[in-house]
Design brief:
- This protein is mostly helical.
- It is built from 2 helices and no strands.
- The protein has helices at residues 2-17, 24-47.
- Helix 1 (2-17) packs across helix 2 (24-47).
- 5% of the residues are buried.
Length: 60
């Protein structure tokens, strides 16, 4: 679902850049969805802890 709406948002952005218009409500919704996804990818990834930040020590 997220991938489909993201693709639709990218298509709506491309169509508006070429001068083609969708219904205003649909165009705004799809572009807002694309913007929110980009913000989530930008700030959500930095806020979530990753396994690479943990360095367990091994004892023998």
């Amino acid at each position: 679902m997220l991938a489909a709406t993201t693709l639709a948002g990218a298509c709506a952005l491309l169509m508006s850049m070429m001068g083609l218009r969708l219904r205003l409500e649909l165009e705004l919704f799809l572009m807002l969805n694309l913007l929110l996804l980009l913000l989530l990818l930008r700030f959500g990834a930095s806020a979530a802890p990753t396994e690479r930040t943990h360095h367990p020590t091994t004892t023998m």
